Amino acid sequence: MVAVIITKHEQPGSGEYHAHPADSEAIGRLTWTERDGVRVAEHTLVPPEIGGRGVAGRLVEAMVADARENHFRIAPACSYVAAAFARHPEWADVKA
After folding, report:
1. What is the mean pLDDT of residues 21-25?
2. 23-39 as b/e, with b when 16 or more CB fall inside 10 Å?
3. For 25-57, how does the pLDDT look when each residue is reduced to its tens digit (9 = 90+)?
4. Domains in the chain: how many in total?
5. What is the domain extent for residue 57?
6. CB 8 within 8 A of CB 15
7. What pLDDT is recorded for position 10?
8. DSSP states along 37-79
9. Nearest CA to 56 among 80, 88, 34, 78?
């Protein structure tokens, strides 16, 4: 499995998580906005050249870990994030 570095980019009220696979220039992204103290996961975007490698899953895992560490809740508006939450009932503690 190729190493993937996840970075977080925030500004007031919104942000993104970026996934950088070691063997590619392509970047996967998970975007969010904040509404009423909840971070709404809006879009998971993975370019085709890095698709099918678990990049989107790693992005969601990073957001869940960040939510636990920084005490916020996630509303999964993105269909991929919603499906990931359905597959991981152990994430219920951070789901809004």
Report:
1. 92
2. ebeebbbbbbeeeeebb
3. 999 999 999 999 899 999 999 999 999 999 999
4. 1
5. 4-94
6. yes
7. 95
8. TEEEEEEEE--GGGTTSSHHHHHHHHHHHHHHHHT-EEEE-SH
9. 80
